[in-house]
């Protein structure tokens, strides 16, 4: 929920002297971003922490590492956009790739193409998957797709759940990691078995790999091997790699050609997208090689948060999963989200950004809240003792 801290400016000349005006949601968000950005210590830099001038300056300063900045800008997907498609296909081990302005659009195109090929418009996926929770029923409203759920457990489906599911489906869609369940992943053997179970049913397999980049440490397999289990994969460039926006769908050449047609129909064939493409290429070069170190240190941070909360005597808490499967994980505490938001903001104002935004428990009892913790480059400088001390300071700010 937005902050409602008072602002000293009156709403209008008729407002009583000394009365305070509440911040609008946009003002509250800008205030929070400014506070988090100014904190001297943080576990993660996020793209929203930077001003437009900073993002543009960085692209101009660093873009020549990945593309000739003296070349003409892209026109309808050539130039740097085509280069990002080529590089992504190469990283994931697929013959073809197509760039989309959003992942929502990329998966709409991919799954309706598979539906046409399989003759079955039913997609099996988790009820916590992104299209079910965050896309306003776009699959059904725009693409004529129907969704079914082999499991409602807060994890990916098992092979038996896929194999024995009592409804037919043409495509199995797996979100790796499953973000809303806590960035959770199956084991490698479990993932292989699930894919095989889908193929036994003559279904194709599509990976919602918005954050697939960060799964290799957990699986103990290179990115190509992970992606190669699926028939098609979507990846994002801003969620993990620090890009401005954009997504790429990889798959067989004929599927990608068909998806390009649907991209045009959906309004995704933009005239120029070079800033997003350059930032994606920079993410592949700079952030992708660092992800294993982020995942390893996230495990140190998560363990220290658990220890810090226990030492502080918090009556109930949960760090989930333990250890984290990626460089992102959840922390649950028995307080209202507004209380925890206020404590996070006060701690950041004092110079340390440990937690950011908290949300009320989506399905549990009132009085529980959850936050997502991300560890990237700046978090590598935190020792376990640093984390425990920051947790103690945070708990001291709670009522």
Give the SSE layout:
Blueprint: E1 6-7, E2 21-22, H1 25-38, E3 41-42, H2 52-62, H3 80-92, E4 96-100, H4 103-118, E5 122-124, H5 130-134, H6 138-143, E6 146-148, H7 159-163, E7 171-175, H8 188-200, E8 204-209, H9 216-219, H10 223-227, E9 232-236, E10 247-251, H11 253-265, H12 274-286, H13 291-311, E11 318-320, E12 328-333, H14 337-349, E13 352-353, E14 358-360, E15 369-374, H15 384-396
Parallel strand pairs: 3-13, 5-6, 5-7, 7-8, 8-9
Antiparallel strand pairs: 1-2, 4-10, 9-10, 11-12, 12-15, 14-15
Describe the structure.
The protein has 399 residues and is of the alpha/beta class. It has two domains: 231 residues, Aspartate Aminotransferase, domain 2 (3-Layer(aba) Sandwich); 113 residues, Aspartate Aminotransferase, domain 1 (Alpha-Beta Complex). The protein has 15 helices and 15 strands. The strands form four sheets. It has a seven-stranded mixed sheet, with helices on both faces. A four-stranded antiparallel sheet has the order 11-12-15-14. Strand 11 and strand 12 form a beta hairpin. Helix 3 packs parallel to helix 12 and helix 13 crosses helix 15. The longest helix is centred in the last third of the chain and has 21 residues. Keywords: Pyridoxal phosphate. Its cofactor is pyridoxal 5'-phosphate. InterPro entries: ArAA_b-elim_lyase/Thr_aldolase (IPR001597), PyrdxlP-dep_Trfase (IPR015424), PyrdxlP-dep_Trfase_major (IPR015421), PyrdxlP-dep_Trfase_small (IPR015422). Belongs to the threonine aldolase family. This is Threonine aldolase.
Which stretches are low in confidence, meaning pLDDT under 50 for 5 or more residues running? 1-19
- The helix-strand sequence is EEHEHHEHEHHEHEHEHHEEHHHEEHEEEH
Residues in β-strands, percent: 5-15%
Taken from the alpha-carbon principal axes, the silhouette is globular
CATH architecture grouping of the largest domain: 3-Layer(aba) Sandwich
The CATH first-level class of the largest domain comes to Alpha Beta
Distance between the termini: 19 Å
Overall mean confidence score, pLDDT = 94
* CATH topology category name of the largest domain: Aspartate Aminotransferase, domain 2
Counting structural domains, the number is 2
Strand order of the largest sheet: 4-10-9-8-7-5-6
- Radius of gyration from the CA trace? 22 Å
Tell me about the largest β-sheet. 7 strands, mixed
Structural class by helix and strand composition: alpha/beta
Instruction: State the total count of DSSP E strands.
Output: 15
């Amino acid at each position: 929920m937005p902050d409602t801290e008072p602002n000293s400016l009156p709403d209008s000349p008729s407002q009583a002297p000394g009365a305070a005006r509440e911040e609008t949601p946009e003002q509250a968000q800008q205030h929070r971003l400014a506070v988090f950005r100014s904190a001297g210590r943080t576990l993660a830099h996020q793209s929203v922490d930077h001003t437009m001038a900073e993002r543009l300056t960085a692209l101009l300063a660093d873009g020549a590492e990945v593309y000739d900045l003296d070349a003409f800008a892209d026109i309808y997907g050539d130039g740097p956009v085509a280069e990002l498609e080529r590089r992504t296909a190469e990283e994931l081990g697929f013959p073809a790739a197509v760039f989309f302005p959003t992942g929502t659009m990329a998966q709409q195109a991919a799954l309706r193409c598979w539906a046409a090929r399989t003759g079955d418009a039913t997609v099996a996926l988790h009820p916590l998957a992104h299209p079910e929770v965050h896309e306003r029923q776009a699959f059904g409203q725009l693409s004529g797709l129907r969704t079914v759920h082999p499991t409602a457990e807060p994890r990916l489906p098992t092979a038996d759940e896929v194999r024995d599911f009592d409804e037919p489906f043409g495509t199995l869609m797996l979100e790796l990691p499953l973000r809303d369940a806590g960035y959770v992943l199956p084991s490698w053997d479990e993932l292989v078995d699930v894919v095989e179970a889908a193929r036994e049913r003559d279904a194709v397999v599509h990976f919602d790999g918005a954050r697939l980049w960060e799964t290799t440490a957990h699986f103990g397999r290179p990115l190509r091997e992970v992606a190669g289990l699926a028939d098609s994969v979507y990846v994002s460039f801003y969620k993990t790699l620090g890009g401005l926006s954009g997504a790429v769908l990889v798959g067989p050449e004929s599927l990608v050609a068909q998806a390009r047609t649907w991209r045009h129909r959906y309004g995704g064939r933009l005239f120029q997208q070079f800033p997003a493409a350059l930032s994606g290429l920079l993410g592949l070069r700079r952030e992708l090689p660092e992800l294993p170190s982020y995942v390893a240190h996230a495990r140190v941070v998560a363990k220290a948060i658990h220890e810090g909360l226990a030492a502080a005597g918090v009556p109930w808490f949960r760090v989930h999963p333990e250890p984290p499967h990626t460089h992102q994980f959840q922390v649950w505490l028995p307080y209202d989200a507004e209380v925890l938001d206020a404590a996070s903001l006060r701690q950041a104002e004092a110079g340390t950004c440990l937690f950011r935004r908290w949300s009320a428990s989506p399905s549990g009892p009132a009085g529980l809240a959850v936050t997502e913790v991300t560890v990237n480059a700046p978090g590598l400088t935190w020792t376990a003792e640093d984390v425990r001390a920051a947790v103690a300071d945070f708990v001291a700010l709670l009522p």
